[in-house]
Amino acid sequence: MEGVRSSSLLPGTLRVGSIMKKVKNSNFGKQSKAPLFDTLLGHAKRDVISLHCPGHKNGRSIDKELKNYVGEEVFKFDVTVFDEVDSLHDPVGPIKKAQELMAEAYGVEHSLFLVNGTSVGNMAMLLSACNPGDSIIVSRSSHKSIMAGIIMSGVWPIWVQPKIDQNLDLIFSMTYDQVKEALDKYPEAKAVFITSPTYNGIVTELSKIADLCHRRGKILLVDEAHGAHLHFNDILPESAVEAGADLCVQSTHKILSAMSQGSVLHFKSKFIDFNRVKKIVSMLQTTSPNYLILATIDLARRQVVSQGKEDFDKVIDAAEWGRSYINKNIGNMKCFTRQEINKLGFDLDITKLTVNVTKTGLSGYEIENILAKEYNIQLDYADLFNLVAIPGEGTIKSDIEAFVKALESISKKYHGKQKNWILKIPSLATEMVMKPRDVLLSNSITKVSLKKSVGHIAAQTLTPYPPGIPVVIPGERITQEICDYLMDTASKGIRVSGQENDKLRMVKVFTNF
């Protein structure tokens, strides 16, 4: 299918539009610098007397048990804003230089460091691209931070029903055809919001979608939280920065080596005012950023530019070995392959391992718990059907070997009764009567029993896990199908995110309509 990367792409093949080889071959001297880290390190080594926040004073008053374990020197990086270390909200020194190096590394016009994770980046993208009353096309399977951005920006969401593959027990992001259909139906839409890769590493047709959006004068926003590494290894799928996203946010901490909360917002657009983006990001971020997190973003960029291809070659080899071993040797577990995903019109980040465990008779949650308690292995995510292992730049093959051997042991040791679980969701193309922002800021909200909620305007978000997709969203009219789905979910004891009691009996609705 057009727009899908070939799974036979050979290591070392130069990707069109990639800056990675240009940086390594002609300008790595500049990229070898880490201006923010170097500044903070120099400051820490001078052992400056701290008469500024924070109160632990270079680690002096940190709890002794913590300090004995991690040491005291690291706390010298926890400083406040002053000229030497620069200001995240108005950078003119090392933070500005670090962000410029980040932009160069990814081949974009500007990059902004985030210390509130990709969640704040998602909110910033919506607020930067849209004005109150604008409409935006977005998949129902997007991260929960998207709803926060929709509420804050006051936009009308045009929801797209995510595709589900019941053979693989997977939920996909929007396809090119779905985006085109939505734009044809709603030509007034200001922007399109895509999540790619998904949690399972599935990448959609971003280049085709970007071309479509820009030909029609639309803005493309991409939540690429799980794709900060894609740009630096030619075997991996195309990144949003190469595909032509106007704004793209990446979690530098998820796969690369930055500390948790460290993310980056990339800008490359003729449709958006960058000064507005800067102001929005400044409004949303703390005025007391953690400089250690900022330093690790700086270092993660230097590391992935200098050795990302080699590092991820090793991660890919380990993950592919694990995928092959599971499929050949563990009969009641299965990992889908890149070839299978290609046939469905998508591509796959092959560093990720999704293991389907339905044939074991155990849920993914149960096996996740066994792995943690008995094998000292903690996964990132599990649901009824799958386990998701997320290797990163620090993963070594022995980690994957331990994971695979533990699964092999579990498959022999534990057996459950085969369950007829089916991954499904109701039709979510419901009537959007009010903007989510207007509902949530209203005082005209009451509770009705779930059984009597049909026809009412929802005033809360309800998200069953699985599949982790909101089936009720503020401003939508609740249908009989959704009501029946939620009642069935509640009867099975499945926890619904957003419910306010142990069981889902009542639903918040808007009354003054």
Largest sheet entry: 7 strands, mixed
SS-based class: alpha+beta
Shape: globular
Instruction: Pick out the low-confidence regions.
Output: 1-26
Q: Quote the beta fraction.
A: 5-15%
In helices, the fraction of residues equals 25-40%
End-to-end distance: 46 Å
Record field, number of beta strands:
20
Oligomeric form: single chain
Over the alpha carbons, how many angstroms does the gyration radius reach? Answer: 24 Å
The strand line-up of the biggest sheet is: 1-10-9-8-6-2-3
Mean pLDDT: 91
Number of helices: 17
Offer a few descriptive terms.
single chain, 513 residues, seven-stranded mixed sheet, 17 helices, 20 strands, 37% helix, globular
Structure explained in plain terms:
The structure is a single chain. The protein is of the alpha+beta class. It has 17 helices and 20 strands. A 7-stranded mixed sheet has the order 1-10-9-8-6-2-3, with helices on both faces. The chain has a 4-stranded antiparallel sheet with strand order 11-13-15-14. It has a 3-stranded antiparallel sheet with strand order 16-20-17, with no helix packed on it. The longest helix is centred in the middle third of the chain and has 39 residues, at 291-329. It is globular and about 65 Å long. 48% of the residues are buried. Mean pLDDT is 91; it is low at 1-26.
